[in-house]
Structure formats: structure tokens, C-alpha cells
Amino acid sequence: MNLLIGEIPDCWNHWENLAYLNLGNNNLTGKIPPTLGYTNPCMLNLRNNSMFGELTSTLRNSWSLVMLDLSENHFSGSVPAWIGDKLSNLVVLSLRSNNFDGHIPHKICDLQFLQNLDLAHNNISGVIPKCFSNLSEMATKDKINNELSTPYFIDYPFYLKALLVLKGREDEYGSILGLVTSLDLSANRLRGEFPKEIGSLVGLLSLNFSRNLLTGIIPDSIGNMELMESLDLSMNRLNGEIQMFQ
């Protein structure tokens, strides 16, 4: 944490080998500069600032991103479909506590390595995509590596850390980040039924769909999620009986 203020200058086109950029927890304002999208880092953290505007489309060039944390800002517009199309290596994606609206793009379901998705506290509407069942890392019980590492100049690895909200509290995960899987869509305007396909995400440790407008019953497929440590479906419009999970 520093006390940096002002806008991020748009002069990143000379930083072609930048692998790790953390400007989180400052007082930065303005939009994401377009040239930042051409640096192609493994990790980009702009969390907890006062930045705004839509996400620059040049970020689609950052195909090496493993972690993208833009939470706790004032970003707006729809969640771009190109995140799922172009940023195929993402493991951690946090857009929490912004002003994003529109629907969740189905392209997000193409992120085969995604383990932590946080879209909570936005203005996102529509239904929860059934294709979330395609998020294969969330559907895997057996994780191989505790830590997330990314190669830097071939032979020097970065070990990544992330601030995640699980069980209602925010903690930093580093040495066990590779074992943590979470899905948080809370505090939005999502409608429709709880998709039974979510039950295939048997590797999830934390699932939070609270404070939405979900209706219908809780599907019994949720009983398949044997590793679940935290489940929050509160403050919705769900009805019916609570199933006996086996």
C-alpha cells in the first residue's frame, strides 16, 4: 500500500517484458490506459483505487494474465466477452465492488483454468449461465499444486498471492492459492432459477449467490459438492423444501 494519486500515465508501450504489476490500495483515478494492455503481464492488480470507465479493449492482448484483480473501483459497462475469449490462462478474476452491468457473458465459461471468479457487488442482471458447468478447474476435486507460479524470463517463477473473500471475510492466499476455488456472484440483480448444472462444480470450496433475485428451489445436485466449506444463498426468493443431501 502506498499513497499514489492521479491517473496512471499512458506510456506502457516500452514495457514489453513487464510480468507483474501491482498498483492496488492507492488513490489512483482515471481510466485504464490503453498502452497497459500491450504489456502482457502475468498478474495485474489495480484493486482498491478510484478508477472508472469501461475496460480498455487493449487488455485483450494480455493473453498471459493468470490473475486480474480490478475490484473495489468504479469501473462500469458490461463485463467484456473477450475476457473469456482472449484471456484463456486466467486462474483468478475479480471484478468485485464496481459498477458493471449487463449480463454475464457466456464466454466466461471458456476459462478452463479459472479457479476463483468474483463478480460480487455490481449491477449485473440476467440469469446465471448454465455453462458454468464447463469451468473444469472448479469441477476438479484433486488439485496438483498448492501455489500458483508463472514463468518470468523462462527460468524465474513468480509465486502469486491473491486477496479473496471466502466465508464472509477477506484473506490473502499465497502458499495454498492453487488449492482454493470460489464462485461469488452475490449482491447483484441476477434472476431466474438456481441452475442445477452448478452441482457439477464439485471442486468448489465457497459458493455465494446471496442478495440476488433468484427464484425456485435449491436443486438437489448441490449435494454433489462435497468439498464445500461455505454456501450462502441468503436474501433471494428461493422456495420449496430443503433437500436431504446424500
Automatic annotation (TrEMBL):
InterPro entries reported for this sequence: Leu-rich_rpt, LRR_dom_sf, RLP23-like
Alphabetically ordered keywords of this record: Glycoprotein, Leucine-rich repeat, Membrane, Receptor, Repeat, Signal, Transmembrane, Transmembrane helix
Keyword Iron-sulfur found: no
GO CC annotations on file: membrane
Localization: Membrane
Membrane topology: Single-pass type I membrane protein
The keyword Cell wall biogenesis/degradation is annotated on this UniProt entry: no
Source organism superkingdom: Eukaryota
PANTHER family from the UniProt entry: LRR RECEPTOR-LIKE KINASE, LRR RECEPTOR-LIKE SERINE_THREONINE-PROTEIN KINASE FLS2
Protein name: Leucine-rich repeat-containing N-terminal plant-type domain-containing protein
